[in-house]
Amino acid sequence: MSVHLGINEEELKRIKKWFRGYVDSFNTETPLFRENIKLKDAHTLRLCDEILTIGRELGLSDDELRLAEIIALLHDVGRFEQFARYGTFNDTKSENHAELGIKIIDREAVLDQLEDNIKELIVKSIRYHNMVSLPDNEDETCLFYSKLLRDADKLDIWRIVTEYYHRKDGKKNSGLELELPDTPGFSESVGDDLANKRSVNFKNIHNLNDFKLLQAGWIFDINYEPSREIVRERRYLEKIRAALPKSEEIDEIFPL
Ligand SMILES: [Fe+2]
Question: Whole-model pTM?
Answer without folding.
Answer: 0.88
